[in-house]
Fold this protein.
Amino acid sequence: MKYLDEYRDSEAAGKLTAAIAKTVTRPWTIMEVCGGQTHTIVKYGLDRVLPESLELVHGPGCPVCVTSLETIDKAHAIASRPNVIFCSFGDMLRVPGSRGDLLQLKSQGSDVRIVYSPLDAVNLAAANPNRQVVFFAIGFETTAPPNAMAVWQAKRRGLANFSLLVSHVLVPPAMTAILSAPGNRVQGFLGPGHVCTVMGCTEYEPIAKRFQVPVVITGFEPIDMLEGVLRCVQQLEQGKAEVENQYSRAVRQEGNLPAKKLLEEVFEVCDRKWRGVGSIPQSGYRLRPAFRDHDAERIFEVENVNTQESKVCISGQILQGLKKPHQCPAFGKECTPQSPLGATMVSAEGACAAYYAYGRHLAGNGAKPRTREAVLEHA
Amino acid sequence: MRESLETVENLYGSCPVPQSQYDRVLLGHGSGGQLTNDLIRRVFVPAFDNEVLSALEDQATVELAGRHNGMKGPRISFTTDSFVVRPIFFPGGDIGRLAVHGTVNDLAVGGARPLCLSAAFILEEGLPLADLKRIVASMRQACDEAEVTLVCGDTKVVDRGKGDQIFITTSGIGIMPDGLSLSIKFARPGDRVLVSGTMGDHGITIMSVREGIEFETQLESDSASLNTLTQAMLKACPTIRCMRDPTRGGLASVLNELATASDVGVEIDERAIPVRPEVRGACEMLGLDPLYVANEGKLIAVAPPEDADRLLAAMRSHPQGGAAAIIGTIVAQHQGMVILHSAIGGERVVTMLSGEQLPRIC
């Protein structure tokens, strides 16, 4: 399939892994920022084809993982109101808050729906004028423009029964927080490709300069990722710290100007709590006062919901690359994909869920699976 | 990840997976994944506590007692399945065809020759009779194609709003050929894993016509009876260890069940798994994995290595097996696990879905 196959080509992958192996002369720790990139690493087993001395640390860019417990509790409180249709992207529904997840709420009779676009939720509001339709607006700069568009349209159409529960987060402040942490181990970044399609590349330049780290804005296919890793280690080996754009087929230097304009009109930057990490200054979006009539936190009076994170779960340190999942006392015990304590165990690409799968894999008899050639030796 | 692999090893021996925290039925309990499995193992199997049910095959094989004309009693294969699908008419089929095919296939993959079916209808008040007639006519046609007879049935009507137009439950009886025994427990290291065609067609067809997802596609459900295919396969290769139809939960769930039941490892090659470009495209857009998407007219088979090529040839020469492929091998290592070798040379564990496959945000 065009635009997919050429980025999943095994020959091209082989060349890139060979080039990476040739370039690397000492250990390096690189963080891939996005959950989508982590997903590609897990799905294609990329970490297994890279040199041993190269460590990929899963970054904070899984929007599901970083949404604070408090926000999920707010969602829970709103969705359990009788007259509410609560809409969300699918994978948020299974993330546990302190009173269970949204799927459980649905089984108890609440009207919780999966939508594929926030504009579908706007249409639901138009079709159900006597009910309150709330869309769970989470995610990074990538999902922010469609959410902004939804609330902008709702306002224009006079749909007073449509509101957003906003918990948007921003990448650059999170990268700054990681690099400023005392135990930071990250030496280079694979930058967030889709975030940069919206925001462009320029806001990463001060970070690269201040912390002397290369940032290679990278796509999401295996070949993209390998090329991103190669460019990043090339910079590291040469002592450079520049912003590079590997994902040039989607990312322009200035980003998507109409989307940025809409974001500016609808949202303003605010402090934001990140799951497990705590509050990061100026790291999120909230609705501007002009859209306060569509602010679900205000309408449903959940602004004061305050939740403590699990004391055992170390997902915050894991999201920052400070600790590995198996260093958590709850890992594989109280916390499993069937009953996750933290969001890194929830989504398949969460670091803890990935470790859980591989841990089981080795628990068998320690044997490594055979090579691909042996799998289909005669096929 | 690499450095930690040794240290996580001992975490699992002493620590069983905890009980699921849910105290109510969730939609995920119907996903065919881990939650469905939990429900079966924790609620149903212990309640009825018998060997045939506990085998957890797609069909039960029971030997009729007594002797007939000096011969041993025949072995009967028996199964049942309920169908709830929205929309009830979809490209390539409808709930009626599905209800016939599903039960016929559960018998067929066990090696049985399907004989007769029952059908129970739960109808929602207000269902247009024209729709019901259309569904019933299509069931009749599906029965004729599969050479089975629908011999008994039942009808109930529920209040408007208490059902989703129509639910159908079919049960089926088939005859097991003498001496034939297939089981998900019979896979042995070295065996090959085959699929009869492209994966995910049915599930993606349904999703694409369901409300809320709009994209144009030429895709049709693969809903079909597999009994002539299974008979052709057994004729060409009587040594087949087992067959299964990867319905809800998809290929990944069936392979995980196989790995667990036979206490073996399964290794599959991503590039060998047939998936239509439209299905791949839709999965990319929706953030789904075709390995977990439902099929209604495909099967997987496990056969000894020396017979696999002959079996593959037999499948490919059948109209329903044209795109059949060998996708992997049974191994002695990593028992209970399915490892996928990715197109670019990496590998990953293909797990059972915990609940429903939820579209990903990123």
Observations:
- The longest helix of chain B spans residues 129-146.
